[in-house]
Design goal:
Layout lengths: L4 H22 L1 H29 L2 E4 L19 E4 L1 H24 L6 H20 L3 H20 L6 H31 L4 H7 L4 H18 L7 H8 L2 H25 L7 H23 L4 H26 L3 H34 L15 H15 L5 H16 L1 H26 L12 H19 L1 H17 L2 H9 L2
Antiparallel strand pairs: 1-2
Helix pairs in contact: 1-2, 1-4, 2-3, 2-4, 3-4, 3-10, 3-13, 3-17, 3-18, 4-5, 4-10, 5-6, 6-8, 6-9, 7-19, 8-10, 9-10, 9-12, 10-12, 10-13, 11-12, 11-16, 12-13, 12-15, 12-16, 13-14, 13-15, 13-17, 13-18, 14-16, 14-17, 15-16, 15-17
């Protein structure tokens, strides 16, 4: 079974998403058991794939053949479904596994049955399957297919609560940007297929010559993926999506956005890493990254909606990742390696801290019926655990030592300073401002006299928050351990793993 782990990690949640709705009509208990089994199995497969990739190298799985190159005609490449998982894909699979498990634990006691619990669970599994497919696939067309699966599932997950006014509006904004981004990606895939008569990423990477059409395809791909990532100026959908989606879904939505960061790394360093490895691309991405950081933090300052405030904080963290990717593309070694280490490490740190904050926002909404900071106050008197978790997540988000956000942000600051002291100063200034914003939010919601009555969150929700809090603390106290074992393989796959990726798929 472990040999088939890559495809099982995708197929099981995909089939489980549709079968779950049928089971829900028979028994809610049976539905919950089925969702737990799907979650446990999918996470186990993602971990198994990661272990293989970290210990054995690039994992290649071909459907319908023993290898991707079986029965290859002279000068051609067969049309096959190929899954290719290197250190970077394995790392993203672990983030998806963490997000899916804690979201499910939180989900069971967060949503009521009349709030679309079965539909939400099904969409959550569908989004999970799409993310894993996107980071595991080895060809561009299936990459586009999984990109669309994640887009459809994410938009439905954001907006299915049609009895409220704002979620459908947020879903429509998200759908508009995802559709435009997906169209750009599809046109790019069509250009490359027309040029090289192939869709396999490894084959295309070897064949790309750097022609004008190749540059056009690269620009379209980056444009579509930056929209999916929520980079300025195409960030308008992200605060609405994060702020209006069910709290349990936000951590998976964050993982979905990070999958776009993964795709940018794959495109810049693997697909076009041979013929179009130009520093200018890195400076473009870094500029968009720091712009995203600054715009998001400044927008967070004026928010009174607690969910949107956290959402802008989440967008700012995606800017830090883009900044690190850009600096890594500029240097491609030396301080570029440090930047990529910080950026990739920040992906899992961001998923934990942002996920924890959104879980607390969901608990506040469930307990009080409001997330308006002007109508909240003194919640720490009754929501003690929630208050502690929010403060922990807020400090981690702002990069305060010794929490996990500090370890990854410090690496980003250090490497960015060597590339551009101005960019590093702006990034540090934004973190200081974000700290002030989240501390103000904590004071407004949890400190002071009690404004309204609130009941503590159920145990299941607290367990999910506790898991993320544990990740924040442990990754912050022992960053070297995790960088060495799960981050460094991902970084090496980006910087020096292109030839190994091509050799694993194409042979030789």
């Amino acid at each position: 079974m472990l040999i088939h782990a890559p495809i099982l990690a995708i197929a099981v949640p995909l089939l489980g998403a549709f079968s779950l709705l049928g089971l829900a009509y028979l028994s809610r208990t049976l539905r919950n058991i089925w969702a737990c089994l799907i979650s446990a199995f999918t996470s186990a497969m993602a971990v198994a794939v990661a272990i293989r990739a970290f210990t054995e190298g690039v994992v290649v799985y071909t459907l319908g053949a023993a290898s991707p190159t079986e029965s290859v005609t002279a000068g051609g490449f067969p049309i096959r479904i190929v899954l290719v998982v290197d250190g970077l894909g394995a790392f993203m699979g672990l983030i998806a596994a963490l997000a899916g498990v804690v979201a499910l634990v939180y989900y069971f006691q967060y949503l009521k049955e009349e709030e679309g619990k079965s539909l939400g669970l099904s969409l959550l599994l569908l989004l999970w399957a799409g993310i894993l497919g996107l980071v595991y696939t080895g060809d561009l067309f299936n990459f586009f297919v999984f990109l669309e699966i994640t887009s459809i599932a994410a938009c439905a997950l954001i907006g299915y609560r049609t009895w409220e006014s704002r979620p459908p509006e947020a879903a429509f904004k998200t759908m508009a940007m995802y559709t435009l981004g997906g169209l750009l990606v599809l046109i790019s895939v069509g250009i490359l297929y027309g040029e090289y008569d192939a869709l396999n990423i490894a084959y295309l990477s070897k064949a790309i010559t750097g022609s004008l059409l190749d540059k056009l395809a690269l620009g379209l791909l980056l444009g579509g993926l930056l929209m999916k990532a929520g980079a300025v100026p195409a960030h308008m959908w992200a605060p609405d999506a994060y702020g209006e989606a069910p709290a349990t879904a936000t951590i998976v939505l964050v993982a979905n956005t990070q999958a776009a960061i993964y795709a940018i790394l794959r495109v810049v360093f693997t697909l076009f890493g041979g013929a179009l490895a130009a520093p200018g691309i890195g400076w473009l991405i870094a500029s968009l990254g720091i712009t995203t950081v600054l715009v998001a933090v400044l927008m967070a300052v004026v928010q009174r909606h607690l969910g949107r405030l956290v959402a802008y904080g989440a967008v700012s963290q995606l800017g830090y990742m883009l900044l690190a990717v850009g600096v890594g593309a500029v240097a491609r070694g030396g301080f570029g390696e440090v930047a990529l280490t910080g950026g990739i490490f920040h992906m899992i740190n961001d998923a934990a801290s942002v996920g924890l904050l959104f879980f607390v926002v969901g608990a506040v909404r469930r307990a009080t019926g409001s997330v308006d900071l002007l109508s909240l106050g003194g919640l720490g008197h009754t929501l003690r655990w929630e208050a502690g978790f929010f403060l922990l997540g807020a400090l981690a988000l702002a990069g305060i030592p010794p929490l996990n956000g500090f370890a990854s942000k410090f690496l980003i600051y250090e490497s960015t300073f060597r590339a551009s002291p101005i960019l590093a100063a702006l990034a540090l200034l934004a973190s200081i401002l974000l700290l002030a914003v989240v501390v103000r939010a904590f004071q407004g919601a949890f400190l002071g006299p009690k404004v309204r009555e609130a009941s503590p969150a159920p145990r299941g929700m607290l367990v999910a928050m506790g898991i993320l809090a544990l990740v924040i603390v442990v990754f912050g106290l022992f960053p070297g351990f995790f960088i060495e074992r799960i981050v460094s393989p991902a970084v090496q796959a980006v910087l020096t793993g292109r030839e190994a990726y091509l050799a694993a798929v194409l042979g030789g």
